[in-house]
UniProtKB/TrEMBL annotation:
Protein known as: DUF1272 domain-containing protein
Pfam families referenced in this protein's UniProt entry, alphabetically: DUF1272 (PF06906)
Organism: Sphingomonas chungangi
Species classification: Bacteria, Pseudomonadati, Pseudomonadota, Alphaproteobacteria, Sphingomonadales
Amino acid sequence: MLEMRPDCERCGVDLPASQPGAFICSFECTFCAECSDALDDHCPNCGGELLDRPTRVGAALKEHPASTERRHKG
């Protein structure tokens, strides 16, 4: 199950699990759309491809809440 990290690792912008706009690699490194574009859709940590993260809403989000651990290293 995806961890659904709450922020962009590069700029720190909030990325709610219930909204589109987050991009992840296979290790779940998480970036906003603007940072993903700036990184040419490649993860700076592993070199993997950054893809749209699916959203998690409703009962699924309630039963399996998103992570609250922020990853921005700013």
